[in-house]
Design goal:
Number of helices: 11
Shape: globular
Strand order of the largest sheet: 3-4-5-6-7-8-9-10
InterPro entries: AKR, Aldo/ket_reductase_CS, NAD(P)_OxRdtase_dom_sf, NADP_OxRdtase_dom
Organism: Aquipluma nitroreducens
CATH architecture: Alpha-Beta Barrel
Protein name: Oxidoreductase, aldo/keto reductase family
Distance between the termini: 25 Å
GO molecular function, one term: oxidoreductase activity, acting on the CH-OH group of donors, NAD or NADP as acceptor
Family: Belongs to the aldo/keto reductase family.
Radius of gyration: 18 Å
Length: about 280
Amino acid sequence: MEKVKLNNGIEMPVLGFGVMQIMGDECETAVLNAIEAGYRLFDTAELYGNEQAVGNAIKRSGIPREELFIATKFGSKEAGYEKTIAAFQRSLEALQLDYIDLYLIHQPFGDIFGSWRAMQYLYNEGKIKAIGVCNFLPDRLMDLIANSGFIPAVNQIEAHPYQQQIETQQFLQDNGVQIEAWSPFAEGMNDIFNNEVLAAIAAKYNKTVAQVILRWLTQRGVVAIPKSGRKERMIENISIFDFRLSDEDIQRIQTLDTKQSMYFDHRNPAIVKWMSEYGWLNS
């Protein structure tokens, strides 16, 4: 598995497995199957309601803890110093771990500065190997960096062929922040798996559209966390390191970029209110 090095020297797999909307025994089985398929990065969140299942799978797998990279997040209702400390402890207990590899602010709302201080404390105590954020637009991220003096290791954002985040990735690189893509397949929207450009490129390499998308992301240095409940899809998604897209093919994929979210606008006041009340949305 290829890896990226975070700004504190920690290495993170460039391809992982997401578990949003996979619950209970199904989630536990999915994580076990993913581990068997070769995945070592797993992304969950307290708000997903499946940290316990992820932890159960980790225990059952028999894989040494140091070989796994476990990421989780807390929502807007847990923003603030004391609430974040409590949320972290709940996640640690649910996951049944001694430490978490990557802990993330799920949305850029609420008392994020209080949370960021709590996360730095937990990081300095060795409870977290790296801390980061999700869904921070460049202005919000710069505000956090400029006013805290501590640079996030990761910003997990929407990234797929229809919202490629090329300029944002450059901004993140310039500031030492690793980009990570949630929803790399755009949840199948706009008939992405039958897109003519992607299908033609897939045929050229004798790969699937999903494999082309994941190779395109990881080849850009973007960490991706696809999800699937089917073991054959898990194997398909991780089998992307035996080919490399040409510059011409990458340019063809760039023509698909709408530069707009397929989900929501984090600057829309109604969305901000909704997320602040419920903690998260589709992430």
